[in-house]
Amino acid sequence: MSDDPIAVYSDYVCPFCYLGRESLAQYQETRDEELRIDWHPFDLRAGKRNPDGSIDHSVDDGKGEEYYEQAKQNVQRLQERYGVEMELDLSREVDSLPAQVVSLHIREQHPYGTWLAFDEGVFTALWQEGRDIGDPEVLVDVATDAGVEGATVRGALDDDDLRARLRERFEAAQETGITGVPTFLYDGHAARGAVPPEQLRRLVEGAD
Fold first, then answer.
1. Which of 62, 75, 143, 151 is the most exposed place for a label (fewest CB within 10 A)?
2. How far apart are CA 15 and CA 56, in angstroms?
3. Bridge partners of 40?
4. CA nearest to 119, candidates 141, 142, 153
5. 204 falls in which pLDDT band (50, 70, 90)?
6. How far apart are alpha carbons 94 and 105 in whole angstroms?
7. pLDDT interval class at 57 (50, 70, 90)
8. In this structure, which long-range contacts are made by residues 45-52, counting pairs with CB atoms below 8 Å and at least 24 apart in sequence?
């Protein structure tokens, strides 16, 4: 079994990414050693984002009301399976780009544990507390709880070079062949979707 981290492609606004991380946390609880996460950002809003950051729902992405209703039912089913409470009545206006910008900065400039606390805090803020993670003040609150100063968050949000690196990460994910999230990669093998803890164990440990 490899000692490499598990690569996780995700977007904070994806409910299945949150559920997938909860599944990963449940698998982690069965391990003697921590399995580190190699986070790879993914941008689900790319084709619908206006220059001012608002979301243009007139753009046809093939996901109509029927799709969202089915997705909501699937989320509810997985909530029950994993024993997770979630805020489901969220506006589709929420954009994760600011959160991903800050997350990338923290991942690059701070210890892994600090990034992990921020990352988990963003998921909690959105899916447990129903807060807008596109709001800089929400990100300041989450970052402060993780031990990062608010000025760092505001500086990251104004950093054009950081945004350019984030876009490169998005493009790299597509070039890797990632078409949906969450996607978990480990030692050359992949699991796609909010798969259960036992499937993540098989992915990492390679045996039943």
1. 62
2. 20
3. 9
4. 142
5. very high
6. 20
7. low
8. 45/11, 45/13, 45/95, 45/96, 45/97, 46/170, 49/95, 49/97
Q: What CATH number belongs to 6-205?
A: 3.40.30.10
Q: Is the dihedral of CA 14, 170, 59, 126 positive or negative?
A: positive
If pLDDT is split at 50, 70 and 90, which confidence band does 78 have?
very high
| Residue 55 tokens, joined | 């979301």
pLDDT at position 207: 52
Mean pLDDT of the chain: 91
* Rounded CA separation 2/206 (Å): 10
Calpha distance 103→166 (Å, rounded): 10
- The answer to whether 108 touches 169, Cβ cutoff 8 Å, is no
